[in-house]
TrEMBL record:
Family of this protein: Belongs to the thymidine kinase family.
UniProt keywords, alphabetically: ATP-binding, DNA synthesis, Kinase, Metal-binding, Nucleotide-binding, Transferase, Zinc
Superkingdom as given in the UniProt entry: Eukaryota
Gene: LOC105136511
PANTHER family in alphabetical order: THYMIDINE KINASE (PTHR11441), THYMIDINE KINASE, CYTOSOLIC (PTHR11441:SF0)
Lineage start: Eukaryota, Viridiplantae, Streptophyta, Embryophyta, Tracheophyta
Gene Ontology BP, a term: DNA biosynthetic process
An example molecular function term from Gene Ontology annotations: identical protein binding
Chemical reaction(s) catalysed: thymidine + ATP = dTMP + ADP + H(+)
InterPro entries named among the record's database cross-references: P-loop_NTPase, Thymidine_kinase, Thymidine_kinase_CS
Protein's name in the database: Thymidine kinase
Pathway in which this enzyme or protein is active: Purine metabolism; Pyrimidine metabolism
Protein species of origin: Populus euphratica
Amino acid sequence: MLKITISRMKALIIPTFSFSPMSKRAIPLASNFFSLASKSNLFSNLQNPVSYFPLKPSMISLPSNFPIQTRCVHSKSSLSSSSGEIHVIVGPMFAGKTTTLLHRVQAEINDGRNVAIIKSNKDNRYGLDSVVTHDGVKLPCCALPNLSSFKQSFGQDAYDQLDVIGIDEAQFFGDLYDFCREVADHDGKTVIVAGLDGDYLRRNFGSVLDIIPLADSVTKLSARCEICGKRAFFTLRKTEETQTELIGGADVYMPVCRQHYVSGQVAVEAARMVLESQKAQCGSCP
């Protein structure tokens, strides 16, 4: 009869694993980190593109009272090179989406991770070489027409060294879903996305809502209603333009609560009808 001891049976049934602690220290960049990126037209608007990336704490223009998020948005599991993450920040205009994005980017930089920020080249209100909040806080960025061109424009070697990619004004990127899925699922990078979840008609704006099923976390921000001061979740357009994409600031948009969104829309529609009526009457005049 075959005799097997209890300890031997345990050894057969329960495999023995050995774990080694994973280092959180970022991999140092090679000296030619931006050798490919510096040759790209992506940085044609920057006087010294090599000095802009990777982002460092010393180059960030932050006021002394700027709140810094000390807890990184990634978990311990995300330290594995094979595991990426997607974090989405949404809300109406003037809710602090870009500010929140910069908070999280700052936390990642402080943690020693290599970061790049992308924004749409459609938004040139504050220039194309920086992401700028309404309060004037800014970070260098890459302005692109689409996200699919980022890897080629940035350079493969430089891209491989990145840990985190921030995307501002994400509603302007039609390829947002495919980019985020590939970068997080296949390339193991953390993606932090900030954008409008709805347009001035409270309808889906771009592809921001499409990436919610992909996200590890979703942050819904609110602003302050400019009429009553209550929490504002909607954006009211104050002008008569009707196209979905109309880039502007406080001269065009205002954050409002539900009550004043509804009443404001009625007022705006009435004003539009009056203007259209006046134009029609003027056109029929001899």
